[in-house]
Amino acid sequence: MSPRSSLLGGARLELRRASITYRQSGFRLSPVALSVRPGQVVALIGPNASGKSTVLKLASGSLRSESGTVLLDSQPVAGLSLRERARRIAVVQQESPLLFPIRVLPFVLQGRHAYLRGLNWETPEDVRIAERALEATRTRHLAERPVQELSGGERQRVILARALAQEADLLLLDEPTLHLDIAHQVDLLRLVRGLAREQGYAVLLVTHELNLAAEFADLALLLYQGQVVREGTPAEVFERELLEQVFQTELDVFIHPETGRPRVVLRSDAAEGGEPPSG
Amino acid sequence: MTDSVLTSARVLKICGLLLGVLLLLSLLALSVGAVGIPADRILRALAGSATALSAQDQLILFEIRLPRIGLALLVGAALGVAGAAYQALLRNPLADPYVLGVSSGAALGAIFSLAFAERVAVATPVAAFLGAAATIAAVYFLGRQGGQIAPYTLLLAGIITASFLSAVIIFLMNFLSGRDLRGAAYWLMGDLSNPSPVGLGWLSLLTVAVIAVIFAVGSDLNLLLAGEPEAASLGVNVRRTKLIVYLAASLATALAVSVSGAIGYVGLLVPHLVRLLFGGDYRLLIPATALTGAGVLLLADTLARVIIAPSELPVGAVTAVVGAPIFIYLLRRPRKGGDSP
After folding, report:
1. Helix or strand holding residue A266 (H, E)
2. CA-to-CA distance for A182 and A145, rounded, in angstroms?
3. Nearest-CA residue of chain A relative to B1?
4. Which domains, and CATH codes, for chain B?
């Protein structure tokens, strides 16, 4: 089942006062400190343009921090080559549209690119790893189907399978549940949390789904205008006044009686009254 | 392993098959023409028989048909591969080798040489190549953003450059005499009837080299097609791959256009045809497109030689007449799985 040979082989991600300023828009992400341990799921939440995806890009090494450091098991991510990076950090991001038809198995095999040698042919071992990744995401039966013909939920699981085929230590997810219905959202995040628990992935997740973050994340960071304004367990971060201020919407926060985790709902009159959000 | 996983054995098998077809086509092309030479006599002559062919047949075969066949094969291979490479680089299935203006630059160079140095035979391909090279450099610098090639900017830069160069070509054509004007028209259409004044040996060496370069980054091209951010996170050096592919594909186009003019449709259609037959993996697509492009252009040029024999058509007219309907068929053909491309 497991795409990796040893359990809990993940690595610890650490951002130490990492920051960046976008020259064109002038957006500035103030120094961020965060750490994700193997087996842990950490969620980045916050309104649009609060800097969530920027933190993710700093963690993946696709943006370079202007200050501080980004470390993977005490090793600077900036010092890794592209191939080394792809073997240690897997990113699930907003997919670019596919131009030409491709079947699921070759698509998942793209995750093995950083391991290919010579004239770049996949070995039977690469195929086995891809097939295990398909099993781990319950998509084995789709292996010969064109990716373009899959439903949204199947497609996200296949994209996750490609990331698992990278046999990385760190899993970065940028809004993986976008465009999915609630059943598929829950299904995908259950899968992700299982991967963290059973296979030791360190998971950093960007999401707009506050309740999913509250249910599935061990820790959450709330960002607002390029700053981390609160971090901690979901119960610590999901405070009504704070969320109302950050999202500029009238909200209520309850504690779910069974899971003990917070739930965020619109206050009943928010649809009619209330000021529209600015920015 | 299942069928959907590409192996080197499968690539070798398919390329071997295509090579066989190519050899048969070459034999056919050697045999037919204004003077027919039976294939069995050609084979006996190739096997070493001194009496199989008359002196005149030998002259036709080895001095006229063979070099022309060689030229068609090289140009067809270069155009097919350049088209496939541009389609991945620009993320656009409509891209062909001429979309970035390389052929217009070459045409401008060629027409310059026809207008001002008409008596020097080698001047035309050399001037065409210089024009193409200058265009490649100009479009590259116009098509960059943030220090690397930006596909949409590159595409726009190429289209604008091509249209500007075409305007200059129209202007220059006013200075051509009647005979050169026909030469220019054939050149713009694409034509293989003039033997290349540049040695076929050099041309084949360069063409094979650029195709090999593109083949070597085939696995990176597969991922580039999946999207640049995806490719980067899967371990592809996106910036370097785009530069290599742009330079190699443009060079392949420049070589082809310099010796044959702008033959249309081969570079656009052959990659799609190969995708349809064998799948879209660039590690197979590049060699298979080279062989298929070579075969398709050889077939078209053979038709151009025999349709109105003893007179000849420019091969570009044949590829356009056959290519345009095929293109429309590919565009409108019913697909399973809804409207996804």
Report:
1. strand A262-266
2. 25
3. A124
4. 8-331 (1.10.3470.10)
Residue A195 sits in a domain whose CATH number is 3.40.50.300
- The domain total for chain A is 1
Please state the pTM of the whole predicted model. Answer: 0.89
Residues 6 or more apart whose CB falls under 8 angstroms from that of B106 comprise B128, B129, B131, B132, B135, B254, B257, B258, B262
How high is the ipTM of this complex?
Answer: 0.88
- For residue B283, the cross-strand partners are none
Write the CA distances from B28 to A47, B22, B37, B38, B293, integer angstroms.
69, 10, 10, 9, 17
- Write the pLDDT tens digit of every residue in B68-119: 999 999 999 999 999 999 999 999 888 999 999 999 998 898 888 877 776 6
Rounded CA gap, A256 and B134, in Å? 68
DSSP for residue A123: P
A269 inside domain: no
Going by the DSSP 8-state scheme, the letter that residue B64 receives in this structure is: I
Q: How many residues does chain B have?
A: 341
Joined tokens for residue A273: 């009254």
Burial (CB count within 10 angstroms: exposed 0-12, middle 13-18, buried 19+), residue B101: buried
- Residue A62, in any domain of the structure: yes
Q: Is the dihedral of CA B110, B255, B149, A103 positive or negative?
A: positive
Residue B2 has a pLDDT of: 54
**Residues B78, B256 contacting (CB under 8 angstroms):** yes
Measured CB to CB, residues of chain B less than 8 Å from chain A are 1-8, 87, 91-93, 216, 218-220, 222-223, 225-230, 232-237, 275, 280-281, 283, 337-338, 340-341
The reply to whether A274 falls in a domain is: no
What residues are paired with B156 via a beta bridge? none
Question: How would residue B3 be classed by pLDDT, with cut points 50, 70 and 90?
Answer: low
Distance CA A245, CA A247 (A): 6
Q: Which residues of A touch B222 (CB under 8 A)?
A: 110
Task: Give the Å distances, CA to CA, from A124 to A6, B5, B193, B266.
Answer: 20, 10, 49, 36
Cα A215 to Cα A211, A229, B25, B124: the distances in Å are 6, 20, 66, 71
User: In this predicted model, what pLDDT tens digit does every residue of B115-160 receive, in sequence order?
Assistant: 777 666 677 888 889 999 999 999 999 999 888 889 889 999 999 9
Domain that holds residue A202: 13-237
| Residue whose structure tokens are 């050609």 | B42
Contact A99 B219 (CB under 8 A): no
Q: What is the pLDDT of residue B340?
A: 39
What letters, b where the CB count within 10 A reaches 16 and e where it falls short, cover A238-263?
A: beeebbbebbebbbebeeeeeeebbb
pLDDT tens profile A215-253: 999 999 999 999 999 999 999 999 999 999 999 999 999
| Partner-chain contact B5 A116, CB within 8 Å | no
Q: In 3D, which of B49, B140, B76, B64 has the Cα closest to residue B102? A: B140
Confirm whether A252 is domain-assigned.
no
